[in-house]
Amino acid sequence: MIKKTLSILIGAILAFTTLFAAPKPRWSAEKANKWAADKGWIVGCDYVTSNAINQIEMWQAETFSPEIIDRELGYAESIGFNTVRVFFSHLVYLDDPKGFKQRFSQFLDICEKHHIRALPTFWTNGGKCKEPKLGPQPPSRKGVHNSEWCMVPGTEWVNDPTTWPKLEKMVKDILRTYRNDKRILMWCLYNEPENLRRGVKSSIPLMSATFHWAREINPSQPLTAPIWRPVGEKGTSLPEVSFVLENSDVISFHAYKTPEVTERYIQTLLPYGRPLVCTEYMARTLGSTFEGCMPVFKKYNVGAINFGLVTGKLNCHYHWNKTDKNGFSIPWDKEPDVWFHDIFREDGTPFSEKEIEFIKSMTGAK
After folding, report:
1. Do residues 91 and 133 make contact, with C-beta atoms less than 8 angstroms apart?
2. 3-state DSSP: the chain helix, strand, coil percent, rounded to 5?
């Protein structure tokens, strides 16, 4: 009990000091807008290799696959995408920091080959894998959307500040190594901080600490963390929303919404006067489509990064699953006629040729 109380106290003190004593202030709106003006329209996807069930399988040495990355980023380049958002694994990094960075550098080389920039993400509260560990990962579960995605660093780490020195080492080492790398678009420090699940008490202490560590390194690329849902919608956590709006250089958000709702959402963020990037959208059966949403994003010069590129072990072409009384996903019994996420099959054939032509018309790809 004493140890738990002490841990909470340490977390509170660290959160307070990092909130009000960051070594570098966030970028001015002027600096952020100048950065955005130099980048053009940001358009791309959240990317996980088709052979990976989660972040561990994508980055660990045994399953890291430059050949697959090269082929699949070629698909992205062919439709005019210039950005891919990827998710890190703290377990892979802490096991072999040098090897992890070598593989990430190789990934960046492939990005550059295809005229694509990376948007790396450190932490995320989303995920179904309950006990992530290195080594062989669980097999893909037929009919289950994203069955083994990992919370990073996970509930125990988020709630226990005594574990954070290891996370600080990771953040500072990676940012120090790539702080001036033009292949990096920007850094997403914490994905879905509002997603308070599986016992996460609050994302703010770790998120605040991570922003503090990043400001100490002061990378040339901007920092961000996305708003999960339109403010006021069920599931919104206002403390996390307030924090990211007050600390992000570039405002990012998620929008699995119809074009009409997405446009209203954007309009609520425009008064902040900062560049806007949607880092997750496109769920066809929810009315979030390329044909409907891309014109809205382009109208306001909002970055458009959809979830998914190539369907594979993640099974993200299935709709989000319903759950049983114990919280376990109920598998869908057949392949969906209309894909939820993703654009291409593994061999490069698209879900919809018509959709591909529309995307290319928006990006200017030939």
Report:
1. yes
2. 45, 15, 45
- Evaluate whether 193 touches 203 at the Cβ level (below 8 Å): yes
Of the candidates 262, 284, 277, 298, which has an alpha carbon nearest to the alpha carbon of residue 80? Answer: 298
Phi and psi at residue 191, to the nearest 5° = -85, 140
> How many Å apart are CA 98 and CA 290, to the nearest integer?
39
Q: What's the pLDDT at 23?
A: 62
Alpha-carbon torsion (263, 29, 47, 159), positive or negative: negative
CATH architecture of structural domain 42-363:
Alpha-Beta Barrel (3.20)
Kind of pairing between the strands at 226-227 and 251-255 = parallel
Query: How many Cα neighbours within 13 Å face the side chain of 287?
Result: 6
Distance in angstroms (rounded) separating the CA atoms of residues 150 and 131 = 9
What is the per-residue pLDDT across 183-211, written as a single tens digit (0 to 9) for each?
A: 999 999 999 999 998 899 999 999 999 99
What is the residue extent of each domain of the chain?
42-363
**Which residues fall within 8 angstroms of residue 220, CB to CB, at 6 or more apart?**
179, 180
The angle that helices 66-78 and 97-113 make with each other, rounded to 10 degrees, is 30
Consecutive H or E run containing 118: strand 117-124
Instruction: Please state the separation of Cα 82 from the chain's center in Å.
Output: 16
Residues paired with 344 in a beta bridge: 310, 350
- For the sheet containing 223-224, what is the strand order? 223-224, 187-191, 117-124, 83-87, 43-46, 303-307, 276-281, 251-255, 226-227
Model-level pTM? 0.93
Q: Which amino acid is at 182?
A: K
- Beta carbons of 140 and 64 less than 8 angstroms apart: no
